[in-house]
Amino acid sequence: MALLGLIGHPVSHSLSPVIHSVTCLIKGLPHRYVAIDVSEREAVRSVLRSLHDLGFLGLNVTIPHKEEAFRCSVRVSRDAEAIGAVNVLVRTPDGWEGHNTDWVAVEEALRERGAVGFRRAVLIGAGGAARAAAYALARTGAREVVVVNRTESRGLELSKTCGERFGVPARFAPLSELGRVVRGAEVVVNAIPAGLSHDADLPLDVEDLRGVAFLVDLVYSRAGEPPATRLGRAAGCEVVDGIEVLARQAAHSFRLWTGIDPGHRLMEHIARSCVRWSGG
Question: Which amino acids are annotated catalytic?
Answer without folding.
Answer: 66
